Amino acid sequence: MGGDEHNARAGSGPARLIIADDHDLIRAGFRLVLEQEPDFAVVGEASSGREALELCRTLRPDVVVMDVAMPGMDGLEATRRIKEEYPEVAVLVVTAHENPEYMLEALKAGAAGYVLKSSPLPRMISALRRLLSGESPLNQELAARLIQDLARHPTGPGAPEPAEELTSREREVLLLMARGRTNPEIARELVISRGTAKSHVQNIIRKLGVSDRTQAVARAFELGLIDSSGSRSERGKND
Q1: Structural domain contains residue 138
Q2: Which residues carry this modification: 4-aspartylphosphate (predicted)?
Q3: CA angle (98, 99, 104) in 5-degree steps
Q4: Which residues contact 86 (CB under 8 A, 6 or more apart)?
Q5: CATH code: domain of residue 212
Q6: Would 220 disulfide with which of 8, 148, 225, 233, CB 3.0-4.6 Å?
Q7: 27 and 111: one domain?
Q8: How much is the pTM?
Q9: Contact, 30 vs 47, CB < 8 A?
C-alpha cells in the first residue's frame, strides 16, 4: 500500500474516489460527507455501472463507492469489469441488501467490502479508512464465510503468478488473513508489532497484485497457496 496508506497510491495525498449511484441526491450526499474529510478526494460521479467503468478508464481512482442496483450494467457486473481491467482499484459496495449470500456475491465479484445504505455515513468513512489502511471492512463472520466459499468454488483459473515470491513470514501472515484475523490479532499471534503486521499485509497485497486483503485471500486460493482447509498448501510449504 505505497508509502502511505493505500497500496495503489504512489505517494501521499488524499485517496481518489468515484461515487457510483443512479440517484442524484444520494451521490450528492455522499460527496458532501466525503469531501469534508481531508484524506478523501471525490474525483468523479457515475449514474450507472457502465459510466463507473468508463470513469475508471480515464480517472484511475483508488476506490469506487459502488451502488449495486443501477440501470443497464449493475454494480456487480461493473465491479467484475473494473477488477478485470484495473485490479489495483478497490471497490466498496453500497447495498440495501442484508442477505449474507447476496453480499458474498458482491465480494466474489471483486469488492473489497460493503456497507449497508441504512448505515450511518460515518460507518462508510470508517470502512473506507479501514480498506485504505490494509484492514478489511468485513466483519469476521462474513469474512470466514467468504473464505469457505472461495475454498469450495475458486473465483477462476489462470491467476498470474506473483511478481515477487512471498517470504516465509508473509505466508504465515497470509494464512492468518485467510482465517479472518485482523492486523492486531496477527501481531499477537506472531508476537510482532502491529506496524510490522500491517507492513506484511501490505506487501502481500502488493505482491499478489490485488487491491485489498479480501482479494488477496481469493488470489491465494487461485494460486494454490492455501488449501481448502485454510492451511498452507504443499506448494506454499515447499517454496
Answers
A1: no
A2: 67
A3: 110
A4: 56, 60
A5: 1.10.10.10
A6: 225
A7: yes
A8: 0.75
A9: no
